[in-house]
Amino acid sequence: MEGNPIGEINLLAVFLGALAFFVVGMIWYGVLFGKTWQREVGLTEEQIAGGNMPVIFGLCFLFELLIALTLGHQFARSDPSTRGIMMISTGYALGLMIPATGINYLFQRCSGKLFAIDAGHFLFGMAAMGAVFVWLR
């Protein structure tokens, strides 16, 4: 690693990890909690249908790529064990993403139900991303 200060980032794992997070989101906000989430955020069917879904999904995937790249960089620098990869992945969700969402939701007066749905998505999405990094280790 002396020649490369950031280590060797596994770009395939970054891409597939982001894809895994995206798929978790499709399932989470689709079949599992879609209607409840929609009700909690106050979106009508017309508003959902009227959204620019290619832009929304595209930006969502780009954000997930950024998260995966950050995780990939962390793994390239620290070379964690399999257990460490999963602890770091879920730790990002439990220690950063979920608390940050909670802070915003408190000031926005969002419901606890919405927080639980979104927090669960972050936790399971990051676990899926971590599993991809383990698989492609």
UniProtKB/TrEMBL annotation:
Key words, A-Z: Membrane, Transmembrane, Transmembrane helix
Leader sequence residues: none
Domain of life of the organism encoding this protein: Bacteria
Record-annotated membrane-spanning stretches: 12-33, 53-72, 84-107, 119-136
InterPro entries: DUF1761
Keyword flag Membrane: yes
Pfam families (UniProt xref): DUF1761
Protein's name according to its UniProt entry: DUF1761 family protein
